């Protein structure tokens, strides 16, 4: 039995720049040039004002853990987290290369990339 | 238009099975449909509307309407996970109020123990747009709800012991339910000493996985009057979706804030008038946050509110889930909304187990949150009164 949402990442036309940047080690967010909000996950149409006038911005790579949990039942326990970025959005991600027993809300973390399901995805490690 | 007083729940049925060996999924749908219609004193030919969610096999309601042999002029397959059936009560009342139907049948069935879908895995014909940005991190029902608990503890000082009281209360009720999967009364120590499954949630903070099903019959006032069954009137309902808001994530509240506010506005009753609540208990944290969001206590004070047996019928101020709920009795198809309405109707009819029946229970509320509390979920609230 599995209760994981294990669909393969799908790179559609709208998000291709995101995946291309990820392959080069940078995390892209979407910024709306009309309402000035930055959103994630990236969409061609702003979820705050429905403007199509959106552009890609690069995340600085720093973040703070907003919440976290460790899936203890998994064959290899793993940490999942919401990380708040200084650019605005709080994103769902993983905490890796960390002591899973010392994670804390408010902890500083730094961006890295891991290949999962044949795609580079943004993950974070203790700063 | 308001639905206040325009619809009555006249039929309920909960399937007794918790492990449906040798019974197919559509067969469970049919058995609960017959059970609820028998309970109401109605028959197949009386039904003119059918409601189901993602647990129903086939395209929307098409296959089940065929399988059951229904002839309907109104269908609704709204899917909000485990809260769907509370949404369906709202939609059925709306359709009845609009004159679109008179007798609405709502069914649920699930077989996660004997070959069905695992928790959190609904049928998704098309991969959702969020999947590529979330699935690689292996979100599960466990860790997504757990992150809400983690944040609640951080913001408000909520403790594992306070969460444990929710399971303790459920177990006190389940001991009287002969169909409950877990009938042993547990203590706070039992819960916090059970294995950590997803920090900070322990094994006993989690609902059970069971087969089963249930059905409801919602009818127009003139139909209710013609029947010999106790009348339970829908006074108000609300529903809402909450999601990740483009990255403005806030795990401290649910869509229940909106669904409950709308339900109370429509019903025009006070929180303090509610004698009994059914609250979807996928996890202990789900109950705690929903009680806050419904407004039974201040945001952040849920821990103190649920502690010391306050949810136990006969001793506490707000008896909840007197059948043992999803934490102890059953969780058909990993969807808890149906049984929440059923037990609330039992309480209003005076048909709950004598040991847990709330005296003079004339006003009850059923509330659920389906999907993933920390990412995207649907909440629904329905307020009912005994007439």
Shape of chain B: globular
Low-confidence stretches of chain B at least 5 residues in length (pLDDT < 50)?
A: none
Roughly what fraction of the amino acids of chain A lie in strands? 35-45%
- Taken in chain order, the helices and strands of chain B follow as EHEHEHEHHHHEEEHEHEHHHHEE
Structure report:
The complex is a heterodimer of chains A (127) and B (387). With 127 residues, chain A is mostly beta strands. Helix content of chain A is 6%, strand content 41%. Chain A is built from 1 helix and 8 strands. Chain A has one helix spanning 16-23; strands at residues 28-32, 38-39, 54-58, 62-71, 78-84, 90-95, 108-116, 119-126. Mean pLDDT of chain A is 92; it is low at 1-8. With 387 residues, chain B is of the alpha/beta class. Helices cover 33% and strands 18% of the residues of chain B. Chain B is built from 13 helices and 11 strands. In chain B, the strands form 2 sheets. In chain B, strands 3-2-4-7-1-8-11-10-9 form a 9-stranded mixed sheet, sandwiched between helices. A two-stranded antiparallel ribbon of chain B has the order 5-6. In chain B, strand 10 and strand 11 (376-386) form a beta hairpin. Chain B starts with 7 loop residues before the first strand and ends with a strand. The mean pLDDT of chain B is 96. Classes of the chains: A mainly beta (127), B alpha/beta (387). The interface between A and B is large, with 51 and 43 residues.
What tags apply to this protein structure?
heterodimer, A: about 130 residues, mainly beta, five-stranded antiparallel beta sheet, three-stranded antiparallel beta sheet, globular, disordered N terminus, B: about 375 residues, alpha/beta, nine-stranded mixed beta sheet, two-stranded antiparallel sheet, 11 strands
